[in-house]
Write a structure and sequence with these properties.
By secondary structure, this protein is mainly α. The protein is built from 6 helices and no strands. It is about 75% helix and about 0% strand. Helix 1 packs antiparallel against helix 4 and helix 5 runs antiparallel to helix 6.
Length: about 140
Amino acid sequence: MIVWHLKLVGALLIGLALAHLTFPKRFDWGNDLAKLQLLNRQMFWVHCFFLCLTLTLMGSLCLLWPQAFLEGGELRRLVSGGFAFFWFMRLLIQFFVYDPQLWRDKSFETVVHVVFGFLWSYFTLVFLWVFVTSP
């Protein structure tokens, strides 16, 4: 059962990385970033690239090698615990950093806010499940 959840998490993470390809147009990054200094603009793009790379690598590990999470050992606990912490921190940011004015009284944005809250919770719980059931 946990293998199925790890594979689903992997597919969702890779999908999330691919979704980032639509963000520049969807959020009009070109116009906003043009106002930044060159260094800040390039740092933004580099950070976005590495976020997508991280999501892809994390997703690939879960999708293609879920059994690696089920084999005993300290690395399994470190990786699953680290991933659980990563997604728990992302969950906290969803509710305590993003200003509610970004989604309040806006139907689509509210749905997105809630869906991502559930998604970050799901990722956290799956990796926590792997962590606590480690031999």
